[in-house]
Amino acid sequence: xxxxxxxxxxxxxxxxxxxxxxxxxxxxxxxxxxxxxxxxxxxxxxxxxxxxxxxxxxxxxxxxxxxxxxxxxxxxxxxxxxxxxxxxxxxxxxxxxxxxxxxxxxxx
Length: 108
Description:
Elements: H1 9-23, E1 28-29, H2 30-37, H3 41-53, E2 57-62, E3 65-70, H4 73-104
Antiparallel strand pairs: 1-3, 2-3
């Protein structure tokens, strides 16, 4: 995964880690996140721990070390965005439907 050039490296790092979690199906080791994002392991560990406090990542510790997966709050954020977009589209449809109703009537 190649990170885009940005003036906000810390923000780009968080986005890269979130993207990695979403694109990787199942559990992934901290080192795997680091390899896929090009970030250091300690950076990934700190970001993942913070994401876990917000429910954006889920951690499972075992003898091999920490493993991570996408937490429930991260996809929920996307679903909320989709719901809001659908509501706005419906409101716009209703607005124009009412405005165009006179043109839908047949003239004698």
